[in-house]
């Protein structure tokens, strides 16, 4: 998914001619106001700066995912530990899914930008491209959330029950789990094809999503509840599993005897740190869209007027912008939170702390010596 950026508001220029009489001027003004405010929509024209922002966002996401994929692929080829290999397989699949979703959704949004966007009058007349874009946003939105919770559950089992993990988790079962995740997300995304919900253009006419703001029906409400419920449940599962894994590792670290072997635990710590990074990123980026979409469809289904829903339009746009950044930030979790990078950061911080301690140590005798001189003089 690609971020929506800057727009300029303007009334529709396609107006019929009117006479110079005062009555004609009044009629023209009424027609202009009617067209600009029809359905409580304001036609927005994508600007050049908005198009540039979309291209830059798309480029950044593509480069980030490619770099992260090569890092993960290289680590996977060198990895001999089965638990680590399983985690890297999940992580590589997540990066590939983010990459494909960023390219597909970004290309469609960019096409809408270049064509000037869709007029508010045509929001409900969704075409094939809108259906595909809306389905892509749902599919590539649920997949990372499902994978994040599956990775957290796998690591929680590996940390708390290592013997059970070694007997249950295999490369084949991991691939089956990934296939089930993709299939489940695809089934939810294709529900509107069976008239179970619908995708429509969203304000300002440069993206498509589930109908949440106008003429919502029971099936639209059910689809949004399903989408948001699955997403929020995945985040909750990841939070619980990562908390259990983190607490278990901290307790094991505290109980470890000095000089004992702990290289295996360092691998677990690295994976849990990366999972926490994924979870935090997903919560920040996806929670607003999941919550705002649920709030919007409930208000719309309850019969709220267009004026009451105007604020929710802005919230939905803000939510999809944040969701876009999830596909850009996810790769940097693997790039920056690797053990080698964390070790370098730790050494730099330790070195800086040592230098600060030396500076304090050099100053303390001097201050003490000067104070002794003052006492002797007195």
UniProtKB/TrEMBL annotation:
Keywords: Cell membrane, G-protein coupled receptor, Glycoprotein, Membrane, Receptor, Transducer, Transmembrane, Transmembrane helix. InterPro entries: GPCR_Rhodpsn (IPR000276), GPCR_Rhodpsn_7TM (IPR017452), Prostanoid_rcpt (IPR008365), Thbox_rcpt (IPR001105). Residues 64-334 form the G-protein coupled receptors family 1 profile domain. CDD domains: 7tmA_PGE2_EP1 (cd15144). GO terms for cellular component: plasma membrane. Its main location: membrane. GO terms for biological process: adenylate cyclase-activating G protein-coupled receptor signaling pathway; inflammatory response; positive regulation of cytosolic calcium ion concentration. It is found in: Cell membrane. The keyword Glycoprotein applies. GO terms for molecular function: prostaglandin E receptor activity; thromboxane receptor activity. The chain crosses the membrane at residues 51-75, 87-112, 132-153, 174-201, 221-251, 272-295, 315-337. It is a multi-pass membrane protein. It comes from the Eukaryota. SUPFAM superfamilies: Family A G protein-coupled receptor-like. PROSITE patterns: G_PROTEIN_RECEP_F1_1, G_PROTEIN_RECEP_F1_2. This is Thromboxane A2 receptor.
């Amino acid at each position: 998914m690609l971020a929506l950026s800057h727009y300029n508001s303007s009334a529709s220029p396609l107006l019929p001619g009117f006479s110079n009489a005062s009555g004609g001027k009044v009629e023209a003004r009424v027609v202009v106001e009617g067209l600009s405010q029809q359905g409580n929509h304001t036609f927005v024209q994508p600007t050049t700066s908005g198009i540039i922002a979309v291209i830059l966002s798309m480029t950044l996401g593509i480069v980030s995912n490619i770099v992260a994929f090569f890092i993960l692929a290289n680590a996977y080829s060198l990895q001999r530990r089965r638990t680590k290999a399983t985690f890297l397989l999940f992580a590589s699949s997540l990066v590939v899914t983010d990459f494909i979703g960023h390219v597909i959704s970004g290309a469609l949004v960019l096409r809408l930008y270049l064509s000037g966007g869709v007029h508010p009058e045509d929001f409900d007349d969704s075409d094939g491209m809108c259906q595909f874009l809306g389905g892509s946003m749902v599919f590539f939105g649920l997949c990372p959330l499902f994978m994040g919770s599956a990775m957290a559950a796998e690591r929680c089992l590996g940390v708390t029950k290592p013997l059970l993990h070694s007997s249950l988790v295999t490369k084949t079962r991991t691939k089956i789990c990934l296939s089930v995740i993709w299939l489940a997300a695809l089934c939810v995304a294709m529900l509107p094809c069976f008239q179970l919900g619908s995708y429509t253009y969203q304000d300002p006419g440069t993206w498509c999503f589930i109908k949440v703001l106008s003429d919502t029906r029971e099936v639209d409400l059910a689809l949004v509840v399903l989408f948001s419920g699955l997403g929020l449940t995945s985040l909750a599962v990841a939070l619980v599993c990562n908390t259990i894994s983190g607490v278990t590792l901290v307790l094991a670290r505290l109980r470890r005897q000095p000089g004992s072997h702990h290289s295996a635990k360092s691998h677990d710590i690295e994976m849990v740190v990366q999972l926490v990074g994924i979870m935090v990123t997903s919560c920040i980026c996806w929670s607003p869209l999941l919550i705002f979409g649920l709030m919007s469809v409930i208000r719309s289904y309850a019969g709220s007027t267009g004026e009451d829903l105007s604020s929710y339009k802005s919230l939905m746009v803000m939510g999809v912008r944040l969701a876009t950044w999830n596909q850009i930030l996810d790769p940097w979790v693997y790039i920056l939170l690797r053990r080698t990078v964390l070790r370098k950061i730790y050494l730099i911080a330790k070195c800086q702390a040592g230098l600060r301690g030396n500076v304090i140590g050099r100053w303390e005798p001097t201050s003490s010596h000067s104070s002794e001189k003052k006492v002797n003089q007195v």
